[in-house]
Amino acid sequence: MRVIDMETWPRKDHFLLFLGMEFPHVNLSIQVDVTDLWRKRAQVGVSPTVSIVYLLSRAANRVAEFRQRIRGGEVVEHDLIHPLITILDSNDLFGVCQLRYDSNFLAFAENATRCIEAAKQEASIAAFPHVQEGEQPRDDLLSITALPWLSTTGFGITRRPKSDCIPLVAYGRVHADRDRCTLPIHLNFHHGLIDGLHIAWFAEALEEEARNLASQARPEA
Fold this sequence. Notes:
The protein is an alpha+beta fold and 221 residues long. The chain has one domain (23-215): Chloramphenicol Acetyltransferase, CATH 3.30.559. Helix content is 31%, strand content 25%.
């Protein structure tokens, strides 16, 4: 992790502009092409949830602005961020589960699958980042939530203080037609740190990583 030098940071004026606003967050919805991966999902060998969380985490780590966080009057940039995902339990209540990001897909999938199955037994929101007196809440996270029952076209979320800056990514049900499969992605981000261009970089990285993962799928028997 590094502390960004505000005096030499090209984004300083933009950051201060949005930091002073009552609600500096932006909601943005995009469609991401996952055709190759979705058609080979059975050969990938893990659940679509684990695959999608891996791709979102990998793409986000490729964009520096997704790794930047506001801490008081400072901005820091993490070397890596890790997925915090929602989990549904047997009572149809959601909890959250913090996963460890690993660039190696098989290593990530093994750990994520184990953690998700354990979390399903008793979903809890205790792992959600929150402020406790005298503590710095964990912020090296990417918040991910799933709406796999719905082919969504938009998404909104409540936020806490103005400095609440962990990016949120929500995804809906994959839409498949005859020649293309798209994943609806909804992002909520702090505009002091992230612009539309950075979202475009994220989307480009996500589609590239989806193609790469599809190319690693096992051949059909």
